[in-house]
């Protein structure tokens, strides 16, 4: 853990970097160093966001996309954790299915988007399934690896004191894989959003992907960048929430290591 002085320095550095990036972008656009048509500018994006916010357009489309992404994330997390625990606890099943899981993970699920849309239509289900498919395998693999990474000495110690299998699971295996699960969840936030947006690109009547596709058809760079920045801020906020939750739940690990 960082002390207060180090944390303050990191915060100041973050603010300075943000100001330099945004300020440099704005000044470069204003003085013609970069083409505004292709890159837009922070001021144009801010104006577009305010206009869209007044018309309730960005809020509506963001709600649609986040609903699809978070539903896929939640379902993928539950199914992925359950499958990962089953594979990790059962040595025979885990060893037998591991190559198939790796092969499934190497499959570009985004490429299946047209098939999914064709099977279930252009509504909520296609975006949900795309987000789910991008999330479930990484979470399953991380959970599985978390079980495999459990300290063998702790497991042997539990066996020496004649602990039951369920006691070994709850006292050693499950706590060990919790950090792995949270790590997978942080990565999966962006995967779920990508899945929802790809589905909206293919066919949708609402959502951030629909907004970007419509703006691209009108060669509106600002209209494409603005919703992406909104999604980036939301994804970052969700990530910070995961980090805060993880730190609270894993406080015992930091205390044990200190």
TrEMBL record:
Places the protein is found: Cell membrane
Topological relation to the membrane, as annotated: Multi-pass membrane protein
GO cellular component, one term: plasma membrane
GO biological process: transmembrane transport
CDD domains in UniProt: TM_PBP2
Keyword flag Hydrolase: no
Family per similarity comment: Belongs to the binding-protein-dependent transport system permease family.
Designated name of the protein: ABC transporter permease
